[in-house]
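G., the chain you wanted modeled:
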Amino acid sequence: MGDVIVGRQTAAFDREVVVFLIGMRVNSVRKVREWLPVVRAMGPMLQELMKDKESGLLGFRTLPTWRGVTLIQYWESVEKLQAFAGDTGRKHRPAWVDFFRNSFKGGAVGIWHETYVVPAGNTETIYGNMPLFGLGRIAGVEPVGKRGDTAAERLGHN
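Predicted structure as C-alpha cells:
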C-alpha cells in the first residue's frame, strides 16, 4: 500500500489557514494563442513560491478539468497571499498584466479565484486509509481520537 496511512487520521493542524481556490477555463479551444500563455503562467509562479519558504504558501494541489485547471492552495495568512499577488518583483504581477493585455478582452479564457480565511480551531479533517493529503500533508496527521471521534467533536460542537 506504499505511503497509505491505515486507519482514520486527522490533520495535526490548529492555526489559522487561508484556503485559496484559483483556476482558469478555456472558453474557446481554437484560440490557443490567447489561452496557452495563461496555462503556462501558473507553473513558474508555483515554483517561485515553493522555493521561498517565507512566501506563506503552505502547499497546493492541482485538479485538471476538461477545459481548464483548479488549484487548491493553503496559505499562512491573507496578508502573505496579497503581498505575493501585488509584488511587482514576483512572477504573478507581470503574468496578471499580460493576461489583461493579451487574453482577457477576447474571452477565449476565463480566470477565477475564491479566498476563504479559516480562523484557528475551525478546520475539520478526516483521512481514512489515505496517503498524506491536504492539511494533513502540510502539518502531518494524528489518530482521529486525539481530536475527537466525530466531525462535531473535532470542531468543538459536541
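The longest strand covers residues 17-26.

Shout if anything looks off.
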